[in-house]
Amino acid sequence: MKKRVAAAGIALLMVLVLIAGCAAKESNKLKVVTGTSLINNIVQEVGGDKVEPINIVPPGSCPGHFDLKPDDVQKLATAQLFLLHTWQGEMFTRDLIDSVHNEQLDVMPVDVAGNWMAPPVQKEAVQKIAAVLAEKDPANQSYYEQNAARIAADVEAKDKELRGKLNAAGAADVKVICSEMQQGFLKWAGFDVVATYGRPEELTPQVMQNLVVQGRQSGVKLVVDNLQSGPETGAGIAGELGAARVTLSNFPGAFPKTDTWSSAVEKNVDLLVSALKGH
């Protein structure tokens, strides 16, 4: 009986040692909280097994209209780094961040202008986030830099591939009215953006009438909505113009099987190409 107890004790001790070892290994990772899935995806790609990222705003939600819950803010309590877009500053005020009482937390706004789904902007974001990770975790600087260089090359290759699809579909000859949140992406894609509109609450009857008139005069053939700020906002405009309409996403993970930037931007382009072919 004593032998069995001793054996059981040894086994338990070994389990505890293993658990402790795993916990210690896990704690070595840089804990990063991100403001959106755009930043989170880059942190995952660049950081690899050196980081432990957790995101706050879900990819299908509009970041500007997302209601923070206490659980969301609490994610910052044990983090070492908080990466957010510069335009999220009003949401994550200094008082809100201070409320988690985490003196080890560094808050770093990522200042990258433009639509992050567009490859040139995505490449810039990758490089800036890699630099922040390297500064925060200098022991793994070369690891982050190597990953960033590889990802930047992949982004350039994807840019060339998708431009080929869009050119073949005749995107440059198509006039578009779109959500202002998609303007930058559509300009990268080669479309002629005639006019833009805001969120559903901003699309008054007068604004809609003006857009329809402008669309008819310009020969608009496509209306593009933004999933996060109103997936059906442009439906009435498209109906009046007899134009094709498509809804794109500005964040990875909003559509099924688009958890990475690469898959998300490819989905957007495929939706555009299909809309052009079907009209």
From TrEMBL:
GO terms for biological process: cell adhesion; metal ion transport. Its main location: other. It comes from the Bacteria. Pfam families: ZnuA (PF01297). Gene3D superfamilies: Nitrogenase molybdenum iron protein domain. It is found in: Cell envelope. GO terms for molecular function: metal ion binding. The keyword Phosphoprotein does not apply. InterPro entries: AdhesinB, Bact_metal-bind_prot9, ZnuA-like. GO terms for cellular component: cell envelope. Keywords: Metal-binding, Signal, Transport. The keyword Transport applies. This is Zinc transport system substrate-binding protein. It comes from Desulfoscipio geothermicus DSM 3669.
